[in-house]
Amino acid sequence: MTQPRQEPPPIPPPVPQPESDFYWEKCRAHELWLRHCRACDGTYFYPRDICPGCFSRDTDWVRSSGRGTLHAFAVVHRGPTPAFRDRTPYVAAIVELQGGARMPTNLVDVEPDPAVIKVGMAVEVVFEDLDATISLPKFRPTAG
Question: Which of 30, 47, 107, 121 is buried deepest, with most CB atoms within 10 A?
Fold first, then answer.
């Protein structure tokens, strides 16, 4: 007897922290914002109050264009937890955004095949609404 196909469990959402509340509010509005250090003029991800480059606390927020290049990727064929097992294959990636920040993410809207995906390809941000409070930034190849 075959059992009906069940929906995979939901992806566990990130838990916003006081340092990242602004980031998640902007993601919910489908805007990508990064931390910027005024002391060394660098942008960085993940959102935190202290610059990882020079350790300055003189930081603010800047809106990202959401464009960048694929820095690294892996096609995942065995999901690490039940929430991801039925979603394979998927592409785990690191995107280098304009401005230099590197961000771990997923590459979407592309065949999960290394013959199609190339390091250095242009990508742009898209958002996946997990629930009413969390929208995850993901990236897809830039059209054109």
Answer: 107
